[in-house]
Amino acid sequence: xxxxxxxxxxxxxxxxxxxxxxxxxxxxxxxxxxxxxxxxxxxxxxxxxxxxxxxxxxxxxxxxxxxxxxxxxxxxxxxxxxxxxxxxxxxxxxxxxxxxxxxxxxxxxxxxxxxxxxxxxxxxxxxxxxxxxxxxxxxxxxxxxxxxxxxxxxxxxxxxxxxxxxxxxxxxxxxxxxxxxxxxxxxxxxxxxxxxxxxxxxxxxxxxxxxxxxxxxxxxxxxxxxxxxxxxxxxxxxxxxxxxxxxxxxxxxxxxxxxxxxxxxxxxxxxxxxxxxxxxxxxxxxxxxxxxxxxxxxxxxxxxxxxxxxxxxxxxxxxxxxxxxxxxxxxxxxxxxxxxxxxxxxxxxxxxxxxxxxxxxxxxxxxxxxxxxxxxxxxxxxxxxxxxxxxxxxxxxxxxxxxxxxxxxxxxxxxxxxxxxxxxxxxxxxxxxxxxxxxxxxxxxxxxxxxxxxxxxxxxxxxxxxxxxxxxxxxxxxxxxxxxxxxxxxxxxxxxxxxxxxxxxxxxxxxxxxxxxxxxxxxxxxxxxxxxxxxxxxxxxxxxxxxxxxxxxxxxxxxxxxxxxxxxxxxxxxx
Length: 575
Hints:
Layout: H1 2-10, H2 20-48, E1 54-56, H3 59-63, H4 79-87, H5 90-101, H6 106-132, H7 136-152, H8 165-177, H9 181-194, H10 196-208, E2 211-214, E3 217-220, H11 224-248, H12 257-260, H13 279-285, H14 306-311, H15 328-345, H16 358-387, H17 390-405, E4 419-421, H18 425-432, E5 439-442, H19 450-454, E6 457-458, H20 470-487, H21 492-502, E7 506-510, H22 516-520, H23 531-541, H24 545-548, H25 550-553, E8 554-557, E9 561-565, H26 566-570
Parallel strand pairs: 5-6, 5-7
Antiparallel strand pairs: 1-4, 2-3, 7-9, 8-9
């Protein structure tokens, strides 16, 4: 029984044993891998379709402006829409343009596409494992761990370009192992068009593969094709990324690290939270600055054992079946770390440093963890068979299997989807009936949902307050300061000047906006000083003018939201 179980779980598929039974074993583990990812995604999508007004959090940034594909007249002169259109990768925009041409709703598409991405990711993860250690169970464990990790963060359901990192990067690894120059270049081009940052990692990996370590020294590849491939990769990377770099520079330059350090937006409670007074947080697990950020589940850490196991090959006989392609894993780590430290040195010209390690490390750890677990399991099999300890191996299999498969059930929420629900459908419907050139001013977070659900322009919104490019954020910040000052002023003329300056059509207010706690406990508003402090001081003394106009100028109301028409405010003469 023990021998049969070992054959099923840890016997490699080699040229000699490629028979029907072996094929069935591969099909079984591959099918099981696909079953789990589909199950995870369907659980996540169950929440996505509970309401028409549900969308991924970050999709509001990327997809809102894309409704221009249906109607070019939407968001006329809209700073926010124009900015996010400029920073959206070209390939990602083309994909949604095609979807719009097929007359498919973009929000609907963003919800169902994770199924496709999940299946592709799982498939490439499985075959990459089989190329390194041809044991089908390794492919299953790696894909299981990776998909669990993706479902613990918004790396599969985000409906943003980063969802494409995993299928494309794993495809790049596969074609690199297979030495398929055509496959490498196609995937590299797609990566640069959809998520350019990882394109730099791909390029560095190709550069590292030009060198090898032999007899204690570094040697250069003697294969001319390797250099031709690298040269072609440089050309493709430049051609694919240059248009995006030009497009995204419209609102440049990028803010400098020195300036960012002076801004609350980059510290705890800020929109970015890049800097930290804790050096470990800053370099290790900081969401935007750390090289080991957001690594979960903990089972991925088994991957750190692989280098140790490979040092003791005599105790782990299955290591003989590991192919030379395993060297690709440390090459990925080295390339990712080079880009990580380069991004830190050039902050923030290459975006957030963690983006170069967060995604690639998860894939490497999933692959390495699966190999480590299988090697340990095989060694335990051999030891148990030699010592007659069948109970030990059976117990190990049960505990290991339960730990891997049942881990999500131990979590309060799984998958952790980034979906948000618009709470005021009647407001979106009302605004959709208004002219397309209206502008809504508001400090309410509900304003974040208006562009995606009502396809109308907002003056500002917390979700869109990215302090990255100076020409964008300078304007955005000034709008916020002017909005706070106008919302809490006692001077009706200041309000009228604000309305005229920004061509505001409607003013969306929360009824709670005129109590001091609304300002003092709002971390977003607190970033805009001195306006927030001055507004709080004014509230302590008198009721702002705008609060007195709610009853006379409201055109739409809910329990906590009031929409004022600015035409009504303009005719008010009271000072």
